[in-house]
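ZP: hey, is the S-adenosyl-L-homocysteine complex queued? I don't see it on the tracker
AM: it wasn't, my bad. submitting now with these inputs:
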Amino acid sequence: MMEPGKVTLVGAGPGDPELLTLKALKAIRAATVLLVDDLVNPEIVAFAPPTARVIHVGKRGGCKSTPQAFIERLMVMAAREGENVVRLKGGDPFIFGRGGEEVEHLRRSGIHVDVVNGITSGLAAVTSLGVPLTHREHAHGVVFVTGHAHPGAAGPDWRALAGTARDAKLTLVVYMGVSGATRIQDELLAGGLPAVTPVAVVQRASLPDQRHAVTTLGRLTETIEREGLGSPAVIVIGDVIGAVAVAAQAEAKFRAA
Ligand code: SAH
């Protein structure tokens, strides 16, 4: 009988191939079939064996993305044929990557599935600015939140989040938030998060063409428009961002010395 195949959901990290885990690299090198998301750097896909079948399932070239159900069926079929399937996803597979849904589907279908963590883009984004996500004085915790509601669903309660973030001193890391930034800004302000709260928008974190802007909650939309920032980007809101200028100055001094 044919050996049963398996599926490994692998986090490709934010983009820089050097941010891959050794476990991720090992899984990619052992793959016979790879299903690759849009946000995965081609340099990472290039670690796959030349004989491996690579299937892109993202929204490349403005096409509609491959329907989720089709991707799930494809993985089950390939695993049943004995393939060693790697499902490569940007960042971490379990942070807004629909990894949870895929794992449930595979388990229901009786397919063995492993998950390899990746560095999530929200984490890499702030680190690239030289500041932490938590800080003993400025931030007691972090909230990873989506700015993109499921069609027909209400999405996050921004007003409630604003109060909690203010009172509990939490950093808010908003994924998929750039196109809905106006609403997020308005709701957070209405919920009581001060307009002077520092905000960073980081586009293509960890990649050579990374760009960012530091602003305040009151000026968020204005800044995104003026700087022409767009997807993929994370919006980081909270007092830890206030130290970005200090970190940049220290870095500049260090380089000049
Ligand atoms: N699983 C991914 C997130 C997928 S949702 C992770 O853990 O990072 C897609 C969103 O992730 C994008 O809309 C954007 O908000 C964010 N994102 C992914 N890669 C990014 C990058 N290199 N720089 C900034 N944001 C990124």
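AM: back. The CA atoms of residues 194 and 217 lie 7 Å apart.
ZP: great, adding it to the tracker
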